[in-house]
Amino acid sequence: MARFLKRRETLLFLIIAAMVAAFSTRAAGFASPDNLGRIFNDTAILIILALAQMMVILTKAIDLSVAANLALTGMAIAMINAAFPAVPLPFLILAAIALGAALGAVNGFLVWRLEIPPIVVTLGTLTIYRGMAFVLSGGAWVNAHQMTPTFLDVPRAVVLGLPVLSWCAIAVVVFIAALLRYSPFGRAAYAAGGNPVAAVYAGIDVGRTRYRAFVLSGALAGLSSYLWVSRYAVAYVDIANGFELDSVAACVIGGVAIAGGVGTVIGTVLGALFLGVIKNALPVIGISPFTQMAISGSVIILAVLFNARRERARGRIILRDRAAAPRAQEVSA
Amino acid sequence: MTTQTPETRNPAPAEGSAPRRAIPDRLGTPFARILRRWEVLLFGVAVAIFIANALASPYFLNIWNLSDATFNFTEKALIAFAMALLVISGEIDLSVAAIIALASTAMGAAAQAGIGTAGLVAIGLGVGLGCGLVNGFLVSVMRLPSIVVTIGTMSLYRGISYIVLGDQAYGGYPESFAFFGQGYVLGPISFEFALFAVAAILFSVLLHATNFGRQVFVIGNNDFAARFSGIPVERVKFILFLLTGLMSGIAAICLTSRLGSTRPSIAQGWELEVVTMVVLGGVSILGGAGTIGGVVIAAFVMGLVTFGLGLLNVPGIVMSIFIGLLLIVTIALPIIAGRIKAMGKS
């Protein structure tokens, strides 16, 4: 019981519950099931992207291009939908996932085969993908009246009391949880990030694992692109601008170690919900939405501080110094 | 840098292939020798772009036009010098553009309150230093990974600008304040360009001719060994973050003065361009190698590319594709070349 209470996820859940309780004293009905469902639905895309980001961070990499990937893929399928309304929706969604995965594969390939640091690769592809969204659209918007009703309605359709958008997020959560727990790839992802050298000795292809994580992250960004464009009923170059930082923030808040190898699906989902609750609460309690950015920033810093304190308590500092040893050999080689 | 792993630390494979970013083993080597490999190649690229620009647009070869072109990179290059040192030491600062936003907002608020030019400059420098202090504290005292910390402070600093300004803008800077971004020192040489030249010399000396610069290289190559050699690793990194904050403050003064107004979205995305400039200049993103001379040439290359594309009416967002490609290709090419060379030998 004491261990359960000490767990990151429990603590985070309690904080979120306390926040909801506090906000509902200021705005009656904030904690009503209806409103909570709405907040979950509003956070669904962030949950999917945060899990995509978590997969990549687990393998000791980072994907800053998720939001740009979403923008480019979303623009592509919105334009297909506007130009060829006859194309069936399942095909469009598959196309979005495939295109997203292909863009992710570009990142993964550069990281795996050319061994370029992930942050550099994805900083580069971030601008390239968003620029390509501009080239593709010529800067024009695809508006709601150009999209087919099916394209717009599916994520809104209510099934068993929840919109399809929420069910998508739940499906992704279950899928990633199962993948991490039961598939060889999932275990390899933890191993590749936790200790890459040991992973190699254990017969795990670290580069390939990282590549797969990027492909998966891209595919999820592709799925999110459809959900985003359909939910907001508009596609333009700047959609989801800066959303990559929110996805990193959700991970860090959820206890995913930026150095890789540590993190849980539940933690990341709670991290995303934490940001979602704040975002939905600000207008309710009368705080300018412009404060959201500063709040996200402060929460990221606090969460990293918190994470670091826990790691230090476990004596990770010794491991970190030892991890420096292979570098010494390389320099002399 | 936390996302790197031991086995990816040394992307140039095989000891036979010449390392792209060699560490000079002697101080005070002749200028030509320092610029032997990457920098010479880059210089060739710069010359080629210059010639291509001159051929593509009849308006390019005009001394005032060229002077105008320097504004494309001077402010970014000022930050890039400090960032180069930071990257060589194995850290990174993604919050530089947000520092510009915050410093510019503070100066705007002060200008509204009627504070004069000297006060505005002091505020710009002060905010820059303060932001650098926060970054440095979190990284070297709290020992947090600089990528996440500066992603966090990036949202925080720009977020404060958004809280203060929302969708508004500050204007109405004093007339004398315009000198920093719009003034000319001598003929077509702008104040910004002069500042750029002075900063280039100062940073070259700092990195290549002082103890401090040597320590930066050692830390970047092996901070474990650096600790054993008695180098105050955390203090050096702290100073580098302060320096990066200060240079961002100076860039904020120049940019604000040049634009004459402040919006919270000012300098959006500059962190990427600054990092690109540093990496393009031959600084190893993994730390431990690089020269200021390379960064200077990279600044010219990027300035010429964006200015040339501008003359050809290419929209800004399309230019950013070129910048992104430039970043990836300049890193990828030497690695591929090294591979081919290694394959040829075996």
Numbering strands along the chain, what is their spatial order in the largest sheet of chain A? Answer: 1-2
Backbone shape of chain B: globular
Strand order of the largest sheet of chain B: 1-2
| CATH architecture descriptor of chain A | Orthogonal Bundle
What is the structural class of chain A?
A: mainly alpha
Query: Ranges of chain A with pLDDT <50 over ≥5 residues?
Result: 315-333
**The CATH C-level class name of chain B:** Mainly Alpha
CATH topology of chain A: ABC transporter involved in vitamin B12 uptake, BtuC
Q: How many helix segments of chain A?
A: 16
Question: What fraction strand of chain A?
Answer: under 5%
Question: What would you call the structural class of chain B?
Answer: mainly alpha
Proper CATH architecture of chain B: Orthogonal Bundle
Please name the fourth-level CATH homologous superfamily of chain B.
ABC transporter involved in vitamin B12 uptake, BtuC
Q: What's the CATH C level of chain A?
A: Mainly Alpha
What does this protein structure show overall?
The complex is a heterodimer of chains A (333) and B (346). Chain A has one domain: ABC transporter involved in vitamin B12 uptake, BtuC, CATH 1.10.3470. Chain A has 16 helices and two strands. Chain A has helices spanning 2-6, 8-26, 33-58, 66-83, 89-113, 118-137, 149-153, 164-182, 184-194, 196-201, 206-232, 243-253, 265-284, 292-313, 316-323, 325-332; strands at 158-159, 162-163. Chain A has a two-stranded antiparallel sheet with strand order 1-2. Chain A is globular and about 55 Å long. Helices cover 68% and strands 1% of the residues of chain B. Chain B has helices at 31-34, 38-56, 63-70, 74-88, 96-112, 117-141, 146-165, 179-182, 191-208, 211-221, 223-228, 233-259, 270-280, 292-311, 316-345, and strands at residues 184-186, 189-190. Chain B starts with 30 loop residues before the first helix and ends with a helix. Chain B has one domain (63-327): Orthogonal Bundle (ABC transporter involved in vitamin B12 uptake, BtuC). In chain B, helix 13 runs parallel beside helix 15 (316-345). Chain B has a two-stranded antiparallel ribbon with strand order 1-2. By secondary structure, chain B is an all-alpha fold. At the A-B interface, helix 6, helix 10, helix 12, helix 14 and helix 15 of A face helix 7, helix 11, helix 13 and helix 15 of B.
